[in-house]
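Changelog-linked ticket: zinc ion example.
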Amino acid sequence: MFFYNPSAQKNLSDFGIAIPMLSTRYQKVLEYVQANFNPSLLQIGPADLLSEDKLRLAHSQNFIERLRLEPTSELLTTYELLNSDGSYHRYDPRSAKYPLAKITEAIYADIATTVASVLAVDQTGFTFHIGGGHHHAMTNQGRGFCLLNDIVIAGRVAQRELGVKNIWIIDLDAHKGDGTAEITQADESITTLSIHMKEGWPLDQGDGSEAWFTPSSLDIPVAENENQLYLSKLAQGLDQLEKNYPLADLCIVVAGSDPYEKDALPSTSLLKLTKNQMLERDLMVFHFLVELGVPQCYVMAGGYGDYAHEPYINFLSHIKHTIIK
Ligand SMILES: [Zn+2]
């Protein structure tokens, strides 16, 4: 089952933000799904937004209130649009079609769609949200282009509404799933695995005591010259996940395409997987979960520039016959 929400689509440039996060990657994946899967497998929406009680499953009341009262301030922090002297960084309100605070409408729609897609997994065993994956959002603030952590919110809504107990979050994005780790650090029902760049953002910021260094249940750092070891490290991590943690009732896969060698964001340049390595990565996780009988929910997370859709489409083309059986 696929989920897509037109209300969640946004080009950051429309808001005056110069970050190469293009909504075209979602449109290209959507077009692929429309052309290759039965229309009954695609859900559009939901139209209703999330209630604050669901946001509280991952975020503090203080943050939720700040977001309601001062969204622009929270967005300037989340998208890193201020220099230390208070001047704007890669943000030009004069070039914006819409005020910055209007982004929150698209973000809320995106979060609601991840929740809807995770809640549908008990019927289908596989869901793919063409969007989502805001893994840097922390308990008390948005960070790293991620305002609210849809992954943890959706996982905890599923615990509440589907009665699932143990959840795995397998995070394949180039950047560490630091917000997810921070929010769930005291929660034994959620096991987090993050395979990510060993150096670079966010792990090059600060002295190691900051919240973004909060360990995941399993962290797999990959150094700059270790592209060839990526798949064997991932295989070892999945082996540890299976052996050392309770079996999951569902798994959310944060399938960032930004480890791809054609990714355009400078901060992803320390990891450069080929198209084939990206496919091997995704198929390894998919078949690992299929063999264990764990229902799986995908969110797209990071992926920048004109080629960011390619790994997702390549993956879906290879699992097409498995998931529609
Ligand atoms: Zn990323």
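Closing comment: Example verified and attached. The CA atoms of residues 127 and 162 lie 15 Å apart. The mean pLDDT is 95.
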